[in-house]
Amino acid sequence: MIEITGLVKTLYGGGHEVKILKSLDLTIPTGQFLAVTGQSGSGKTTLLSLIAGLDNSTTGQIVIDGQDITKLNEDELALLRGKRFGFIFQNFHLIPTLTALENVVLAAELNSTPGATKKATDLLGTVGLGDRLHHYPAQLSGGEQQRLSLARAFVNEPDIILADEPTGNLDSKNSDRIIELLLELHRVKQATIILVTHEQHVAERSERILTLADGKIASDRLNP
Ligand SMILES: Nc1ncnc2c1ncn2[C@@H]1O[C@H](COP(=O)(O)OP(=O)(O)OP(=O)(O)O)[C@@H](O)[C@H]1O
Ligand SMILES: [Mg+2]
Question: pTM for the complete prediction?
Answer without folding.
Answer: 0.88
